[in-house]
Amino acid sequence: MGGLEDDEFEMDDIRLPWVLAHRGASGYRPEHTLAAYDLSVTLGADYIEPDLVSTRDGVLVVRHEPEIGTTTDVASRPEFADRRATKLLDGVPVTGWWVEDFTAAELSSLRAIERLPRIRPANTAHDGRYAVPTFADVLALREELSERHRRMVGIIPEIKHPTYLHEAGFEPEAATVELLGRFGLNRPDAPVWLQSFEVGSLVGLRSEHGYRARQLLLAEAGKAPYDLVAAGDPRTYADLFSPVGLAELAPWIDAIGPEKVLVLPRTEEDRLGPATTLVADAHSCGLLVCCWTFRAENHFLPADLRLAGEDGIVRRSGIGRAAEEVLAHLAAGVDGFFVDNTDIYAQVLKQGPSRTGPSID
């Protein structure tokens, strides 16, 4: 498992703006399945995005959260009924079934289901068809997809809830770096970005675990990194994404991943408002900006971009004027877009001129 040779394809790097397949083509298949990743690249994704959590025996698997009651069929499996438990996840009590209470072998018997069945009812036709992949499965698929499509496919994994995993006795950063190395991807020019909502995880990847590729700090509006909260540090994402905060982060990260309302806030009428200075501030520190999450259904769109069906009713599951939202963020200078409906956004983002992504010394 050595990965693709650097000169196998005629490209220096994946071109901006990037289409980042958020958990795969999750507008069309249950998220975090090999089928979702495969389809997303066929539809034009530049990068596939797996979220990483750990089984009891330390195997990195791909799920949205450590709790898997809403993304697998575990709730219907009587042999696992006694695994249901309430735990504190980043200080909040959550009841369900937890990846770290299953071995990798046990988890492999589960099947993925659609997480948003009322918004994406068509996806429920795929419930029960796909297994929960390991991170190694997804890394192997990335190699195969690059070869099949004759272009470099990148990968942008997120280490989920690292403080929670550390408290449970796991070392997700070490496990992630080890596996990337096994696939020949722990190098500065690899088509890899690691993500986290926690600052300490990203700092530790480079300072303690020898990680050499690029990384991105995610941020949610109105919140703070949980590792800082747990340590009693009062800084919020707003503080970290101020001009001073970005300059302090720049030695450790290569990009920021703000929730899209941090770039284009919503007005009181739930419409797109004017852009903030965040993109310009990040670019002035040499950081790229990759926003999340762009979804084409009315439920996720600003009020003025929702569309009614033929009967005049605006349904949550209906597809709205999604292209207009992403073009507004592109005009604000955003470099990458985490998207669910890969084809819709790839068609829009690849119409204009492209530019070369960053090289890392």
Structural overview:
With 361 residues, the chain is an alpha/beta fold. It has one domain: TIM Barrel, CATH 3.20.20. The chain is built from twelve helices and 15 strands. It has helices at residues 34-42, 104-107, 135-149, 162-167, 172-182, 199-207, 226-230, 237-240, 243-249, 278-284, 322-331, 342-349, and strands at residues 15-16, 18-22, 47-49, 51-54, 60-62, 85-89, 92-96, 154-155, 158-159, 193-196, 214-219, 255-258, 288-294, 336-339, 355-356. Strands 8-3-2-14-13-12-11-10 form an eight-stranded parallel sheet, covered by helices on one side. Strands 5-4-9 form a three-stranded mixed sheet. Helix 1 (34-42) runs parallel beside helix 3 and helix 11 (322-331) crosses helix 12 (342-349). The mean pLDDT is 95.
